[in-house]
Amino acid sequence: KHIETGKELVFKAPVFADCTGDGTIGVLAGADFAMGRESKADYNEPRAPDQGDKMTMGSSVQWYSEQNTENSPFPAFKYGLNFNEESAQKVNMGEWTWETGMNYNQISDFERIRDYGMMVIYSNWSFLKNEHINKGKYANRSLGWVAFVAGKRESRRLLGDIILKEQDIVDYVEYPDATASTSWQIDLHYPEPKNSKFFPGQEFKSICTTYKIYPYPVPYRCLYSRNVDNLFMAGRHISVTHVALGTTRVMRTTGMFGEVVGMAASLCKQNKTSPRGVYEKHLEDLKTLMRKGIGKTGTQGHPDYNPGEFLKERAHIFELEDTGETLVIKREIKKKQKRLTIMGLGDSITEGGENFQTYLSPLQQFLMSIAGYQFEFIGPRINTYNAEPIRHSGFGGKTVEYLDREIDSIAATIVKMNDRHVLLASTGEGFDWARHTISDKVHPNQAGAEKMADVWFVTIKELLLQDEK
Fold first, then answer.
1. Each residue of 174-219: pLDDT tens digit?
2. What long-range pairs does 247-254 form, CB within 8 A, spacing at least 24?
């Protein structure tokens, strides 16, 4: 339907491909879909939250400013946003981290999300120009560009015969209908905790957690609807969980899904069959088309624009066999990943706080680079200051003597353990209390937390090497 004239056009065809990004065609046709984050219980994904919710990754409104030779005024602009010296973003440009709308519906509220993203840019810039204590720094700068189309990451996901999940990618489960490979990290976005402090529920800044993967071929059965017989889908809204979407959602990958769907659609027309029929009866024909590809031959290599980082070897591989009714594991080609638990034990430095970071947060990121292992942090408490909550046993304000009394003599327990499993790590070595702490000269800043995490990371790797001998 034309948004200006109201003129309606009706299209009839044996098969359709929903490439809208929001799954609009599929939903109008009654296709099954999901939206938001699944819980751990839904698919047993390690990176899924304990409780499912409606939160999605947000949309970015990017911008930049330009330096001028003369003073460039900007009007006072607030509209209910109270920026101050502590909450203002003291920057000259905004990249992908200027992301909002995670707690709103990325479809029905999308115009509001875009408008809010623009409003915070203008309000923040107005504060820098007119009220900031160092406003002279911005006197000759003016806004050069503000995006009027927000960059969306996630909304609906149409469900296919296979719903790709985290374990499929990390464990490299081989499906017989493998197609285009996803190589971007599992890249999940969350509201920035510091931004949440000043703008709770109205965040406009984000952070992310990333997990490197080995390039993984996505099954063809993720590219067609499980309950609308003649519907393909290609784009970020294919059949994946929220966690798996962290890798499949980027443009070059979704573009390859479009190529595969085009090939499969040609087979539907040629053989008078459905998208599912291609898998059931013409899979080898599809593989032939995929091997040939649709690109020009003999061309120069494409530029590596932001290719991301990925693992150089597969952690382990499962080969599946289709029994006709279900898929079963035929054989395990490489050893399955080891899952290890870590308990951070200590005081407020382990617990983390509103104004400083626990070393467990960067440690979690460092450990993701170790192929063949998955790490789970455990403990009775949860650090809520990080984007991804971390369980721990950090007790702010408590002394070593307190911990010793409460935990059945830590020192005695260590002495009783086999020496091979005990390594001492000095997090104070190379730690500069002037540069690596916040203003109280006690708790680590980000650089200090990363310094401490690196010591533990090296020690844990040494322990793993001992266990493999």
1. 899 999 999 999 999 999 988 999 999 999 999 988 888 889 999 9
2. 247/169, 247/182, 247/183, 247/184, 247/185, 247/186, 247/187, 247/213, 247/216, 248/164, 248/182, 248/184, 248/218, 249/57, 249/153, 249/154, 249/184, 250/184, 253/180, 253/181, 253/182, 253/183, 253/184
Q: Helix H segments across 86-165?
A: 110-130
Whole-angstrom distance, CA of residue 425 vs CA of residue 397? 22
Question: And the tokens for 326?
Answer: 């279900």
Taking the CA of residue 463 as centre, how many other CA atoms within 13 Å lie in the half-sphere pointing to its CB?
A: 17
Residue 72 CA from chain centroid, whole number? 38
The answer to whether 343 and 378 are in contact (CB under 8 A) is: yes
pLDDT one-digit tens code per residue, 322-360: 555 544 445 555 555 577 788 888 888 888 887 777 888
Give residues with Cβ within 8 angstroms of 287, minimum separation 6. none
Residue 209 · residue 49 · CB < 8 Å: no
Q: How far apart are CA 88 and CA 146, in angstroms?
A: 18
Cβ contact 256:180 at 8 Å: yes
Secondary structure (3-state) at 32: coil
| DSSP symbols for 284-314 | HHHHHHHHH-SSPSSPPPPP--S-----SS-
172's tokens:
């490299």
Interatomic CA distance for residues 427 and 448, integer angstroms: 10
Joined tokens for residue 97: 């981290």
Q: How confident is the model at residue 391 (pLDDT cuts 50, 70, 90)?
A: confident
pLDDT, averaged across the chain: 86
pLDDT tens string 83-129:
999 999 999 999 999 999 999 999 999 999 999 999 999 999 999 99
